[in-house]
Amino acid sequence: MQEKTDVVDEIPMRWLERGEGTPVVFVHGIPTSAELWRHVLPRVRNGRCLAWEMPGYGASIPAGNDRDISVARQADYLSAWLDHLDIERAVLVGHDLGGGVVQIFAAQHPDRAAGMVLTNAIGYDSWPIPSVQAIQRTAPALRWFPDVVMYPQFVAMLRRGHDNARIAGESIGLHWRHYATHGAARSMARQASALAVQDTLAVVDRLPQLDLPSRVIWGASDVFQKVEYGERFARDLGTTLQRIEGGRHFTPEDHPEPIATAVDELTG
Fold first, then answer.
1. With 0-12 CB in 10 A as exposed, 13-18 as middle and 19+ as buried, what is 225?
2. What percent of the chain is helix, strand and coil (3-state, nearest 5)?
3. Does the bond joining 146 to the residue before it have cis omega, within 30 degrees of 0?
4. Does residue 111 sit in helix, strand or coil?
5. Which one of 20, 39, 170, 265 is least enclosed by Cβ atoms within 10 Å?
6. Residue boundaries of the structural domains of the chain
7. Integer CA distances (angstroms), 50 to 15, 81, 87, 193, in order
8. Strand order in the sheet with 214-219
9. Membrane-crossing residues (predicted)?
10. What pTM, to 2 d.p., does this model score?
11. Per-residue exposure over 43-69, b if at least 16 CB sit within 10 Å of its own CB, e if not
């Protein structure tokens, strides 16, 4: 798996890449990074896999400074990055906020979406979740807090979102390092402040009209994005919901195999 970076429209962008064939773009959520997909990419047999990192997240936290990093704007950044790589069409895979990004991108550019996989994604009115709303409310003061204040909340969120304790520990260390490097309190306040439910509500009516091959995979015990939203996505996208019984929120880390299989079904 290769780590790549380039400047796109004056924005430093980072991604992980592996494989060849049909482009498959993976988009992470909050509070993670491109490494969210580290266990999925090696399991995909068919496709050029590109795990794109949203500006303002992960190692790309500095790229979000003084920029709009809302979910809707991230869809624009994604489009510019694909143009930069001369990728006309791609299968889109999104988790959490990344699911919102790929929905918006597909709704705005239906001719560029070759397929879509959603796993425990935001959508409709399912977000921001209460813990993120709390960060939004305290954001002006939070920017001045020491990073150590944020660490217990970060750990609690990731542990609640994993059903595999070992992977949860791995995930905490992997994703926290970016916040520790770039300022956790300030970065989380900036990320949370950019989130608005109107971004996904704006494309709700277009989801049933997408008419593209889709898969919806859901950790059925997710306390952040409830499985009922997965069922709604499946209905709107004309597919069936694949439930991961006992699975929680961070499915790409705890349950990479069914996601990789879904990608192979769309690229094979």
1. buried
2. 50, 20, 30
3. no
4. helix
5. 20
6. 2-126+197-267
7. 6, 11, 11, 27
8. 2-8, 11-18, 48-52, 23-27, 90-96, 113-121, 214-219, 241-244
9. none
10. 0.97
11. ebebbbbbbbbbbbbbbbbebbeeeeb
CA distance 112 to 88: 6
Task: Identify the architecture of domain 2-126+197-267 in CATH.
Answer: 3-Layer(aba) Sandwich (3.40)
Pair of tokens at residue 18:
């592996």
Tokens of 231: 């069922």
CA distance 94 to 119: 6
- Quick check: 1 and 17 in contact, CB under 8 A? yes
CB contact set of 41 (below 8 Å; sequence gap of 6+): 1, 16, 18, 19, 26, 49, 51
Residues in the chain: 268
The 8 Å CB, 24+ separation contacts for 242-245 are 242/215, 242/216, 242/217, 242/218, 243/218, 244/217, 244/218, 244/219, 244/220, 245/220, 245/221
Token look-up 């520990």 returns: 169
CB 120 within 8 A of CB 251: yes
**Distance between CA atoms of residues 81 and 86, nearest Å:** 9
